[in-house]
Amino acid sequence: MAGVILLVLLLAGPAAAQRGGCGLGLGLEALRGADGALRAGAEAPSLLVGREAAGQAADRLAEAARRLGGCGCARAAGEAQEAAGLAEELRGAAELERIRRGMDRARFSARLARERLDRQGCS
User: 49: number of CA atoms within 13 Å, CB side?
Assistant: First the structure.
């Protein structure tokens, strides 16, 4: 019986979060890194600073979405991608207030992704 269990375990593939291209830790790091840019954009003193913060946040969130998606964390990756899309739209915004509101919304989506990972792990 023990031999059968061992054989099944050996034949089973690695869990999604253990795959070579996964990078779960890098995905979480990218989410954390995006938070500073999201906060900076929401509090930006000028249009130029807000656009720059939006670009940085979009890049980091897109990286987080790619990493999390590669680990099989579909829901968290989707939330990170949603936040990335919101931030991406703000790269060329014409009004500072639009950047501030948009970055707050993107920060909310990114927070949902982090909280989901904290509560439920990769799903």
Answer: 10
